[in-house]
Amino acid sequence: MINEQIRDKEVRVIGEEGQQLGIMSSRDAMKLAKDAGLDLVKIAPTAKPPVCKIVDYGKFRYEQARREKEAKKKARQARANAKRPSRREKAAEQQEIVEEAAAEEASRKASISRKQARAARIAADQAEEEEDIKLVDPEVAMHAARRRSGILSFRSLLVLILAAAAAYLSFAPSFEALPLPVVLDILQNPTIGIGALAALQILALLIGIDVFGNGFSSLLHGRPARGTLVSFAALASLLHCASLLVFPDQGGVAVPYTAVSILLLYAEMREARGRSLAQARSYRAVCEAEQPLAVYSHYDSEIDACNAVKCPLYDASSFLTEIERPDTVDRFSLIYTPIALALAIVLSLVASFNCGEPVRFFWAFSAILSVSAPVGLLCAFGASYKNTASRLLRSGAAIAGARQANLLRGTEKVMLLENDLFPTGSIELEAIDNLGRITDEQILGCAAALTESAGLELGRVLTDTTKERFGITFTARDVRLVEGGVTGAVGTSRIVLGTAALMVKMGIPIESGHKGQINMYLVVDNALAGVLTMRYQTTKNTYKAMRLMRRMHMNAVLAVRDFNISPAMVEEEFDLRRGFADQPDPAGVDRLLNPNYAKGDAPAAILTREGAGPFMQVLRGADKLAGAVRSALTLGTFAGLLGMLIVFYLLYQNAADALPVMNILLYQLIWYIPVFIITQQTR
Questions:
Q1: Is 566 helix (H, G, I), strand (E, B) or coil?
Q2: Whole-model pTM?
C-alpha cells in the first residue's frame, strides 16, 4: 500500500536513510513523505503499529522487481542444474516471455494512442465544421430560436391534426363503428378517397415545407439528415397515391400510407422544435452571465486521463460555435440515412419484380420508407436536449449539445478548486491558542499576512477576521508556498505557518493537545508561537455534489493551494470512499491552475454560478443526455432496420393483408414508447 491507500490511524515511520522517525499518524507521515518529494510505502502491514518507509516508490518497485527477477533467475538455474530442459520447453518459456512483454507494451500504446487519436480526430472535425458556421449575436440568436420554436410548435400541431384526419380516413372503411361519408370511403370511392389523402399530404407538406425541403437540400449538399428519410417517405406516399389512381387494379394495399408519412413529418417538426428551444435556453445562459465559466473535457497526457476542467470563458463565440456545430445525431445520420435509403430502393425493386408487377414498386417503396425512420429515431435528441437545457438553466448552466455531452461523459477525473469544496463563508476562525511569545493580534495578523500574500482563500478569511477584531493588517514579504504551509517575513521576524506534518519536518515539537485536522501552527523565528484552529464547514449543496460525483464513478483532483485541504480531509468531511480524491504536488497544482491548461479545447458547457453544485449538474446532465441519445439512437436504428426487413419479407411473400396502415402505425408506436421513457429520464 502507498500514500493515501494507507488508512491506519498510527504507523511507525522509517526515513529514506533508514533512520527511525517514531510513531505518528498516517496523515503526518504522508505529509513528511510529500515534503521530501517521496512516497510513503507500507513495508510491514502485520506489525503493531504497521511499519512504513519513506522512499521513492519508482525506485522501490524497480529494486523489488530486480530482486524478484534475480530470484526467478536463480530458481531457473537451480532447475536447470537439476534437470536440463528440452528444446521444446526452452522455446515455450522464451515465447511466453516475449508474448507477455508484447502484450504489456501493446496495451500501453493502445490506451494512449486511442485517446490521442480521438482528440486529434475531434480537433480535425471541429476545424472543418467551423468554416461553415456563421455566428450571430447571442441575444439575437436567442430570440430567433424562441420564435422558431413557437412557430414550429403551432405548425406541428396543425400537422398532427392532419395526421389524425388521414388516420381516420384510412381506418374508417375497416371499422363500422367509425362513421364516414360514402363519398370519402376509399374502398367504395377510391378516386375521391385517395385524392383526399393526397390532399391532406400536400397540405401537411406545405405547412412543414421548410422541414420537407431541408431533407432534400441536405442530401444535395452531401450531408443527408434523418429528415431526408421523412421527405422521401412523404414523396413515396404521394407517388403511391398517384399510382393507385393511374393503375387502380394493381395488387397490394389499397390504402396509401399517408397517415404514417404525415406522422413522421410531425415527429421531425417536434424534434426541430425541441432543438430550437434547447438552443434558446443555452443562448439565454450566455446572455445572462456576466463572467461565465467554461467547462472543458481536457485530455491530460501526463496522467493519461480525461479531466473535467472549468476555466473562465474568455471568448463567448467559442461556446456559440459549439452550439451551432453538428451534433452526434447529425453525424449519425450521415451514415444511417444513405444506408436506409439505398436499402429501401433495392428491397422495393426486388419485392416488386418478384411479384411480376413493377408498378407495385411505389407501394413497396412507401411501405419500407414508412418504417425506415421510426418516430423514436426522429425524436432521439430534441426532447432530451430540451429537458437537459431546462434543468441546467435552473442550475445556472448550459451545455452545447449531444456531441459535447458525449465528450464530458468520458470524464475520469474532475478538477475541483477551493471554492468548489468550501464556498465563501464556509471557512472561519474558531480559536487562537496563544503560547505566550507574542500577542493574539500578532498571531492572527502574521497568519493573515502570509496567507493573503500567497493568494489563498484562507487569507481573505483571516484578513477579514483581523480587521474585524483588531482593526489592523500586517504586510508580509518573501512569501513562498511549501508542502504543508507557507513561509515569509513579517517585520524583522521569519514566519512559518503550516500543518503538523510541516512542524515535524522542521523538528518543532507539538504538544498532543494541539494536534488536530484543521490546526495551523505559527512559528516565529523557529519557535512555536501559537495555534489557530479553523473550521471548514461543508455546505448542503457541496455535499450533494460530492456524493453525486461518487455515484457517477468519478474521482476528484484537488487543484488547491490551501495546505489545510488534503485528500484525506475531503474524504472524511464529505463521507467519501478512500482514494476518491487525489492532490498533486505544488508544481502539479500550478500546472492545473495555469490559464493555458485547457487552451485549445472547445468549451462543452458554461457555468454562470460558482461552486461544485452547478459543475456537477453539468456533468450529470451531460451523462444523462449522452446516454439517452445513445440509447434512443440504438433502439431507433434497430427498429428501423428490423422494420424494413419485416416489411420486405411480407412484400416478397405478397402478404398484403399484413401491411395495412394500422399495423405500420402500431409498429411505430411500440418502438416509440421505450424512447419516450428514455427521454423522460433527462428531466
A1: coil
A2: 0.73
